[in-house]
Description:
- This protein is about 25% helix and about 35% strand.
- By secondary structure, it is of the alpha+beta class.
- The protein folds into 2 domains: about 85-250 and about 370-420, Antithrombin, Chain I, domain 2; about 260-365, Roll (Alpha-1-antitrypsin, domain 1), CATH 2.30.39.
- The strands form 3 sheets. Strands 1, 2, 5, 6, 7, 11, 12, 13, 14 and 15 form a 10-stranded mixed beta sheet that branches. Strands 9-8-10-18-17-16 form a 6-stranded mixed beta sheet, with helices on both faces. The chain has a two-stranded antiparallel sheet with strand order 3-4.
- β12 (about 275-300) and β13 form a beta hairpin.
- The protein is globular.
- The two termini are about 35 Å apart.
- InterPro entries: Serpin_dom, Serpin_fam, Serpin_sf, Serpin_sf_1, Serpin_sf_2.
- Keywords: Protease inhibitor, Serine protease inhibitor, Signal.
- GO terms for molecular function: serine-type endopeptidase inhibitor activity.
- It comes from Callipepla squamata (Scaled quail).
Amino acid sequence: MVQPDLGTTSIPASAPPHPALLSIVNDGPQGEQQFISRKCMSEEFKHCILPTPRGGDFQPEIMNWHFSFVFLLGTLASVCSQFNFYPLEELSSDVGIQVFNQIVKAKPQDNVVVSPHGIASVLGVLQLGADGKTKKQLTTMMRYSVNGVGKALKKINRLIVSKKNKDIVTIANAVFAKSGFKMEVPFVTRNKEVFQCSVKSVDFEEPNSACDSINQWVKNETRGMIDQVVAPDDVDSLTRLVLVNAVYFKGLWKSRFRPENTKKRPFSGADGKIYQVPMLSQLSIFRCGKLSVPTEYPRRGGTTSTPNELWYNIIELPYHGEMISMLIALPTESTTPLSAIIPHISTKTIGSWMTTMVAKRVQVILPKFTAVAETDLKDPLKALGITDMFDESKANFAKITRTEGLHVSHVLQKTKIEVSEDGTKASAATSKSLY
């Protein structure tokens, strides 16, 4: 699996982490997309070699990401430290990560690529237009105070796209409304203030034309990485609104991988077959660490921990802008399923990573890959307790319009990520259709 979030060597221990911009699970070959397997195919990949002193230097630790793994891409804790006067829960929401966990649970053998920030942004737009129980469910799941959603997400967006960031990050939001549909002025004004959300008029009576307008906007905002997020079948004459969030990221590694070191290496997929996949490789100084997840088993009267622990490695690969970094985590043993690690990941866990990692001279071997995913987020959100907004008889979006009853029909996200010798390009587009 893969999930993006924090880190560099200059991160203060007290700095709070930021929700991941993009989360990916990679779990074995699937055509040419899946490059990560549950098993290593040679003894040299079987164990990490811990650094040992020699004349004041260290032998490199081999960090070989040959099993299924999870990586996180997002803002560094050092950047977030400027907002230390806000409680962590006011700046970070686990809702995107929880959605990620739900998807992984439903598709344990698939690549999963998700943008938690995209999910949080679209839910934030909806929360500003919701009322009653619908608003309560959204606010509760996002774990912000009732009036804190807009404030927190506005600050998060500001720090992500900060001019101090040398990496390229853009975040855009838009409401595509049916021609003639009247929205409450406070909803439009507040979304423009918080999310820089523009309102555009389209004719859903002409599905092809409406989708062309939406998809062209997405293509422009994602620099061509994503050219379609809605299809004509997703809208019709009853559609009133389509909410869209687009995130684009391009970052060059602070320590780049040399192309001549990229080699194909054998991997065993979830289907048991062996695949040759291109692997990036470099020897350099990176912050890394090793953590454990206490195992538990059901017992009459509750759950009891066992003495055994599941261990996993983490490493931080910073981008040259030094405000965004990739974190990678994977089990130390090929026999440990990634599913045992994923539920452990949260903003709190990521915070503990930042205080645990130390700089080491390591040999990093990482898959070079492109992954694309299109995900229906409706079921994962419902599983997390956000249900009323999908129910025509229960949805309450009175703060969007008081003249019509609205409910959410579709919640779709399309994501793409490319990891190469130079760095990472990632993009995500999230849409919600209201009827």
